[in-house]
Amino acid sequence: MRAEKNRASSSFFSHFWSSALRAKTLTTYSETSDRTNDGEGLVRRLGLFDLILIGIGASVGAGIFVVTGAVARDAGPGVTISFILAGASCVLSALCYAELASRFPAVVGGTYLYTYTAFNELTAFLVFAQLMLDSHIGTASIARSLASYVVNIIELIPFFKDNIPRWIGHGSEEIFGAISFNILAPILLALLTIILCRGVGESSLLNSVMTTLKVVILIFVIIVGAFEVDVSNWSPFAPNGFKSILTGATVVVFAYVGFDAVVISAEESKAPKRDLPLGIMGSLLVCIALYIGVCIVITGMVPYQFLGEDASLAEAFSSKGLKYVSVLISIGAVAGLTTTLLVGLYVMSRLYLGLGRDGLLPSIFAKVHQTRHTPVHSQVWVGIVDCILAGLFNVTVLSHVLSVGSLTGYSIVSACVVTLRLKDRTASQVSTRWMSEWGEGVVCLIIIACCGFAAGLFYRFSASYILLIVAVVIAIFAAAALHFRQVYTDPPSFSCPGVPIVPAVCILFNMFLFAQLHYEAWVRFVVLSIVTVVIYAFYGQYHANPVSSNETIVYHRASAEEAE
């Protein structure tokens, strides 16, 4: 009996590891991008302008009106440099995303798909879990913020002033420290879910209108504010030294999170090979310009020490007697939150669709409506989960455990760029060394990630700068090993410059930022990873199929593209 149990246990773990280490095969672009319609795929209706607006819509929310002033209180006018540094680091990550987006088949999946191909099945599932928890909590939190903004605008009407109960939009008093009822947030989520279920054309139109409105308001605010700037407010430029500017960069980098949403639209893009890289870079550059413009204006209008933490930009204009601009800012905040919420719901449904096709989730998530060409089941599921979270819980208290998924995703995408180029070479050559070239490359990437995390801890807890320098030097040696001991091939389409140095820098900085997160975020990362492995062990490994419909699906073209 004991021998049979041992054999069963051995068989279980053997199957687990063989399944966990499975990977997808990177098919060529033409194999999946030029097929005919058969009623099972998403429809290609998104052009380059739509993709850029999706990236902007996901990145620029109400935070642009708040986070600039909050960080400026410590960094001073140097907050502009903080946004430039953070933007530069995101540009490096965007270059990695652009290469993979142009190289992979035009299917849903994004970071999950890249990880599945470059590494293995279990790692991809782990990345998906981290991204999903970030997205669900983040979206529910944004829905509550949007409900609060909507109520604030309604209360501008004298009849409603102070007459709307808190449980309508602001959230009721907390019960048991977590439960807080909010009626309007689930209603807004339900409306956006219905729009997304109707079709990508309708949701893209709403996103385009709201994002354009938001950008126009921001440009108007920057222009009006420029005439109120007092250059004496920019001195001293860095009142608390360069460290405060660097610390500010670690905070504001999360303001750029969202440009990666563009890659999820691959299956619905008209010309994904050309438009995805342009959409990623274009949306990020627009966001950088907007943030820098707001920083310059707000720190020039009001001395940094007088900036508010909750509505800094609106307060700055009110102090100059420009209250009508404050009203525009509130409208822009509503538009920003709406687009962020809309894109967040859209991205999550497409990720669930990808995992449903691969068998890692039940097949119901893989179904696409035959006439609407949207993943209705996945979209409804996402809407229900977020409605429950937003309607019953004060999820904003969990904001300090967010960004784990984004930083994990950015790091893993950078690593995918390196390993896939290594895999191109080692696939046709047999290594005679004790460790394969691909394996050596992965070890170097892990060392760089660990050094980035260690350097972040040393910086966070004000340890000796010698320790910080040692961690950085070790990372430099690992990057040098990647550069001089490996040979890389250029991809057939868009190529990220400076491989492997650029991806190595991305990983180092992202892990440095990971170390700056609240310790509960680290606990969340470990606990969720354990739970994900358990789910994979008892479900995923038996149902997953790397050679899935995600690679054989037949894609639809919009009528305009067919005419071409």
TrEMBL record:
Domain Cationic amino acid transporter C-terminal intervals: 494-543
Keyword Transmembrane helix: yes
Gene Ontology CC terms: membrane
Domain of life: Eukaryota
Key words, A-Z: Membrane, Transmembrane, Transmembrane helix
Membrane topology: Multi-pass membrane protein
Subcellular location, record wording: Membrane
InterPro entries associated with the record: AA/rel_permease1, CAT_C
One Pfam family of this chain: AA_permease_C
Annotated TM spans: 47-72, 79-100, 112-129, 175-197, 204-225, 245-266, 278-304, 324-347, 380-398, 442-459, 465-484, 496-515, 521-539
Entry's family note: Belongs to the amino acid-polyamine-organocation (APC) superfamily. Cationic amino acid transporter (CAT) (TC 2.A.3.3) family.
UniProt-listed PANTHER family: CATIONIC AMINO ACID TRANSPORTER 9, CHLOROPLASTIC (PTHR43243:SF45), INNER MEMBRANE TRANSPORTER YGJI-RELATED (PTHR43243)
Protein name (Swiss-Prot/TrEMBL): Cationic amino acid transporter C-terminal domain-containing protein
Species: Ilex paraguariensis
